[in-house]
């Protein structure tokens, strides 16, 4: 029964995080159907993590015995996470999704590059490790997948959402780099506490960025869709989603939980179609296949090493 609960939680997490791309798109709106925050995407992202950060801080107070980071390493971890994982990732993602050409599914597929990019950054920051020839091919396949998905017009590289999709790619790269740097610091800080302060720090940075680029609170239209989008992203996708993620990370390990990134685009496409009328293009599908092939090449050794443990767990599990 434990295995079935894990599968159910895995599918739930993929659905919740996949639908988040649709919720972002719905909150931002489009030029022909403006939503609550079309004129202030960075402010939208900041408000999302104002709420999520407070909720996660309350959970950290309940679940851990350390509510505030201590020492230089712990605060450095929070600072890196705030800059790269929260502010950098979400500001670029939300701005990229303002382009009508960037559908919910397209954004989710590009973001699914994060595990692949994380591996590449980890190798770059660890001099003792180098990518093999097959690993380099895997990394290049991932980049080719983004090019295929972007489908740029050689005669007009600024058309067809190519720049917006590159912004989303930059978001995935920012998240991957932040993940590697926080692991490199390796501070002994409860993950719930780290997430809470990282969310709040990232929200503060995005508020500052929002002001700096001229976004105004007056641009916010608190429509029903806007309230629903913020509520879903803050409570369900962020607070509840990360709690499920922590449980699965402990039960399944990093290899299997990384696969959430490759299931989420399915739900992004389904919810984008159901709520926004978005239809994935053939470039989205082909780009996803190429990116996933790159992931399998880069993670081939880890996946091979994981298989005996998975088979052993399958045969040794008992009903409970």
UniProtKB/TrEMBL annotation:
<feature type="transmembrane region" description="Helical">
    <location>
        <begin position="259"/>
        <end position="276"/>
    </location>
</feature>
<keyword id="KW-0812">Transmembrane</keyword>
<dbReference type="InterPro" id="IPR000620">
    <property type="entry name" value="EamA_dom"/>
</dbReference>
<dbReference type="InterPro" id="IPR050638">
    <property type="entry name" value="AA-Vitamin_Transporters"/>
</dbReference>
<feature type="transmembrane region" description="Helical">
    <location>
        <begin position="101"/>
        <end position="122"/>
    </location>
</feature>
<feature type="domain" description="EamA">
    <location>
        <begin position="166"/>
        <end position="298"/>
    </location>
</feature>
<feature type="transmembrane region" description="Helical">
    <location>
        <begin position="131"/>
        <end position="150"/>
    </location>
</feature>
<feature type="transmembrane region" description="Helical">
    <location>
        <begin position="282"/>
        <end position="298"/>
    </location>
</feature>
<dbReference type="GO" id="GO:0016020">
    <property type="term" value="C:membrane"/>
</dbReference>
<feature type="transmembrane region" description="Helical">
    <location>
        <begin position="226"/>
        <end position="247"/>
    </location>
</feature>
<feature type="transmembrane region" description="Helical">
    <location>
        <begin position="194"/>
        <end position="214"/>
    </location>
</feature>
<dbReference type="InterPro" id="IPR037185">
    <property type="entry name" value="EmrE-like"/>
</dbReference>
<feature type="transmembrane region" description="Helical">
    <location>
        <begin position="75"/>
        <end position="95"/>
    </location>
</feature>
<feature type="transmembrane region" description="Helical">
    <location>
        <begin position="162"/>
        <end position="182"/>
    </location>
</feature>
<protein>
    <submittedName>
        <fullName>Permease of the drug/metabolite transporter (DMT) superfamily</fullName>
    </submittedName>
</protein>
<keyword id="KW-1133">Transmembrane helix</keyword>
<keyword id="KW-0472">Membrane</keyword>
<feature type="transmembrane region" description="Helical">
    <location>
        <begin position="46"/>
        <end position="63"/>
    </location>
</feature>
<feature type="domain" description="EamA">
    <location>
        <begin position="8"/>
        <end position="150"/>
    </location>
</feature>
<dbReference type="Pfam" id="PF00892">
    <property type="entry name" value="EamA"/>
</dbReference>
């Amino acid at each position: 029964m434990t295995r079935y609960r894990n599968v159910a939680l895995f599918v739930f997490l993929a659905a919740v995080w996949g639908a988040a791309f649709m919720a972002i798109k719905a909150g931002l709106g489009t030029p022909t159907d403006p939503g609550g925050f079309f004129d202030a995407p960075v402010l939208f992202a900041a408000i999302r993590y104002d709420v999520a950060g407070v909720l996660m801080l309350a959970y950290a107070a309940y679940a851990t015995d350390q509510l505030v980071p201590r020492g230089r390493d712990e605060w450095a971890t929070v600072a890196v996470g705030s800059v790269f994982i929260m502010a950098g990732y979400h500001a670029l993602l939300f701005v990229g999704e303002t382009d009508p050409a960037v559908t919910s599914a397209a954004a989710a597929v590009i973001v699914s590059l994060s595990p692949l990019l994380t591996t590449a950054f980890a190798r770059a920051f660890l001099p003792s490790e180098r990518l093999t020839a097959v690993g380099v091919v895997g990394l290049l396949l991932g980049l080719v997948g983004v090019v295929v998905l972007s489908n740029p017009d050689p005669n007009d590289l600024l058309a067809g959402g190519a720049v917006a999709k590159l912004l989303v790619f930059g978001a995935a790269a920012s998240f991957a780099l932040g993940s590697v740097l926080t692991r490199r610091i390796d501070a002994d800080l409860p993950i719930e506490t780290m997430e809470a302060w990282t969310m709040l720090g990232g929200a503060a940075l995005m508020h500052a960025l929002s002001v700096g680029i001229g976004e105004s609170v007056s641009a916010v239209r608190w429509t029903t869709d806007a309230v629903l989008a913020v509520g879903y992203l803050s409570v369900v996708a962020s607070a509840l989603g990360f709690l499920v993620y922590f449980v699965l990370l402990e039960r399944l390990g990093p290899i299997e939980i990384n696969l959430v990134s490759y299931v989420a685009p399915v739900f992004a496409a389904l919810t984008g179609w159901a709520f926004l009328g978005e239809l994935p293009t053939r470039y989205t599908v082909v780009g996803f296949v190429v990116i996933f092939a790159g992931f399998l090449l880069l993670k081939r050794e880890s996946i091979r090493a994981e298989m005996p443990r998975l088979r052993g767990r399958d045969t040794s599990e008992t009903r409970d």
